[in-house]
Fold:
Amino acid sequence: MPAERVQQILTAAMVAEAQGVNLPDALCSACAEALPVSGAALALMSSRGPEGLVAVTDDRARTMERLQFSLGEGPCVDASTRGRPVLQPDLRNTAPALWPGFGPAALEAGIEAIFAFPLQVGGIRLGVLDLYRDSAGTLNPHELEKALSYADASTSILLRLQDRQPAGDELPPDLIDRTGNLAEVHEATGMVAVQATVGLAEALLLLRARAFSSERSLLEVAVEVIAKRLRFPPEEGHHE
Structure:
């Protein structure tokens, strides 16, 4: 039955695509409608953490993903790192202690519960399917099984979109952050890595730390780096 459900989800998403709806958008919308959640998001992940946003159903879902990308913490980060779902039905009681930066910000945005499902093939991390609720509440066993089917379908869609792209090309258009390109963050990370003589992972941490300490978004700090109004000298990347 799970395999049949996954195929039904994929078939419905492809029918929507044939009618002009973006494939990841179609899946996220269908998932949010099929489950007792307020919205859904599909994000790309790698060993470095969040890499970009593929699809969201609404502004809160977009905020949920951008907070996790900017802060480098949250349910989707943990789900991808651990390779198993992270189910948080009552963020108000658990999130501030688990994620000191993300927790309070998510609650302020009106997000009260999150269910994050890793999308991977073997040890290869592809992304995360994040579901949120604007009120606390769990998924019962039947609903959880259905959410896992949507996660499997999401994995298939990410692989399908990658297969459509000619060899050697960049990410296909459907895997580009269409809600606000994060290319600036990646460019700035490379510049900081050179300036501070550190690896890319540590460079991204430096960017996130500067954004957090200055109470600005990661994108704002990245734009300043690209414009050469902000530099990270080597001593910032090397601590005793």
Observations:
- Residues 17 and 117 are 23 Å apart (CA to CA).
- The radius of gyration is 18 Å.
- The first strand starts at residue 39 and ends at 46.
